[in-house]
Amino acid sequence: MEILELLPSSFGYVIFTYFYSWIMLSYLGVKVGAARKKYDVKYPTMYSDKEQVFNCIQRAHQNTLEVYPQWLVFQTIAALVYPTSAAVLGAIWVTSRFSYAWGYYTGDPAKRMKGAYGYIGYFGVIILSIAVALQLLGVL
C-alpha cells in the first residue's frame, strides 16, 4: 500500500505546517547570524557578556530549538488521526514562535510572553496525541 493511500488527504495541511515551521526556524537562525555580526559575537560563543539584546535574540532561537523536537513528535502523532485539527494547532504554535521572538528581540525578556498563546497549539497537539494513544489502547 502506498503512503498516499494510507494518509487522509487533509494530511497535506500538516505537511504545510511542517514547511511553515522550517521557515520560522530559518528566520530565527538568520536573525541570530545577523545579531552576531551586529554585536560582534564570534563563534562558538553562545552568549555575550556585554550585549543583552544579542542574548535575547539568541535565546528566542535556542528556546525554540529546545521545544521543537517534542512539538514535532506530538504534531505527527496528533496529525495521523486528526490532521486538520493538528494543522491548525501547529500553525498556532509556529505563529506564536514569531510573536515570542519579536517580543524577545526588544531586549526585554518579559515581552517574549507575547507568544504565550502558542501554548494553545502546543498543549492542543499533546492532548490529541494522548487521545490517539487511548484510542489505540481501546480506552476511548
Automatic annotation (TrEMBL):
Pathway: Lipid metabolism; leukotriene C4 biosynthesis; Lipid metabolism; arachidonate metabolism
Protein EC: 4.4.1.20
Subcellular location(s) of the protein: Mitochondrion outer membrane
Presence of the UniProt keyword Membrane in the record: yes
Keywords: Lipid metabolism, Lipoprotein, Lyase, Membrane, Mitochondrion, Mitochondrion outer membrane, Oxidoreductase, Palmitate, Transferase, Transmembrane, Transmembrane helix
Catalysed reactions listed for this entry: 15-deoxy-Delta(12,14)-prostaglandin J2 + glutathione = 15-deoxy-Delta(12,14)-prostaglandin J2-S-(R)-glutathione; (5S)-hydroperoxy-(6E,8Z,11Z,14Z)-eicosatetraenoate + 2 glutathione = (5S)-hydroxy-(6E,8Z,11Z,14Z)-eicosatetraenoate + glutathione disulfide + H2O; leukotriene C4 = leukotriene A4 + glutathione
Enzyme class (EC, first level): lyase
A matching Pfam family: MAPEG
Keyword Lipoprotein: yes
Protein name: Glutathione S-transferase 3, mitochondrial
Species this chain originates from: Salmo trutta (Brown trout)
GO molecular function terms listed in the Swiss-Prot or TrEMBL record: glutathione peroxidase activity; glutathione transferase activity; leukotriene-C4 synthase activity
Biological process (GO), any one: lipid metabolic process
